[in-house]
Write a structure and sequence with these properties.
Blueprint: H1 3-37, E1 39-40, E2 43-49, E3 56-61
Antiparallel strand pairs: 1-2, 2-3
Length: 85
């Protein structure tokens, strides 16, 4: 591979990561806006902490709770990875 080709490919890769990060942030902000305006049949929804991790992973109505049991592709005790989402 020529040096010029390498630098062009590197620049393209860096640019695609920058665009990807920007799109991910925009998607996250849009999702939050949508969540802020959504009201379920059971009342307004809000971030609720996972009982296992303490992280706010889901938006739920008042009185609801949840517990996560693991993360996608985490290694289990038997050496096998959990399935992907």
């Amino acid at each position: 591979m020529k040096r010029r080709d390498f630098f062009q490919l590197s620049a393209a890769a860096v640019g695609s990561f920058a665009i990807s990060d920007s799109l991910a942030l925009m998607h996250k902000l849009k999702a939050q806006e949508k969540a802020d305006s959504v009201e379920s049949l059971l009342g307004p929804i809000k971030p609720v902490k996972d009982q296992a991790t303490g992280l706010e992973l889901l938006l739920l109505p008042d009185g609801f709770s949840y517990t996560s049991f693991g993360w996608s592709k985490d290694m289990m005790d038997d050496g096998v990875k959990t399935p992907g989402a």
